[in-house]
Amino acid sequence: MSDDITGELTARSPRQLLEALAQVARVLVANGRARPEVELHLASGHSVKGRLVEAGAGDDHAGPVAVLVVGGTPRAPAVSYVRIDEVVAVTIGDASLLVRAPVSDAPAPSRLELQRQVAARSEPLAAKLGRALPVTF
């Protein structure tokens, strides 16, 4: 098995790419990891580099917007709002995020931890199903 993921990448428009990366960003943040780093190359010739927060419809008729953290601190971030229709190219710091699911840095849970999690969740599940489901390790 090769670690080369370039053959698995597919061509996408900047909008599709940023929307997919925004979903990945939500998963990364939920697992305590950094957002994807991107550089947006604009039709004007300028570029904006930062960590992608969101890409979506925006709040008016100007079209979809990408939100990037470009500096500052977690409590006082500096952000850029970029109209996606102005983006002509996207550079991604780690393109493997487009191919493989983000991996948590957390260690795999132990057997005891799994048993505790199953015990904590089995009672509400049994109540909804009307019967207990035996789980063995």
Q: Number of helix segments?
A: 2
Helicity range: 25-40%
Envelope shape = elongated
Largest sheet: 5 strands, antiparallel
Task: Provide the low-confidence segments as ranges.
Answer: none
Strand order of the largest sheet: 4-3-2-1-5
Total strands? 5
Structural category is alpha+beta
Cα(first) to Cα(last) distance is 30 Å
- Please trace the helix and strand order, writing H or E for each element: HEEEEEH
Whole-number average pLDDT? 86
Q: Radius of gyration in whole Å, from Cα?
A: 20 Å
What share of the residues does DSSP label as strand, in percent?
A: 25-35%
Give an account of the 3D structure.
This protein is α+β, with helices and mostly antiparallel strands. It is built from 2 helices and 5 strands. The chain has a 5-stranded antiparallel sheet. Strand 2 (47-56) and strand 3 (65-72) form a beta hairpin. The protein is elongated and about 60 Å long.
Brief write-up:
This protein is α+β, with helices and mostly antiparallel strands and 137 residues long. Helices cover 26% and strands 27% of the residues.
Summarize the helices and strands and which ones pair or pack.
Blueprint: H1 14-30, E1 37-42, E2 47-56, E3 65-72, E4 77-83, E5 87-92, H2 111-129
Antiparallel strand pairs: 1-2, 1-5, 2-3, 3-4
Characteristic terms for this protein:
alpha+beta, single chain, 2 helices, 137 residues
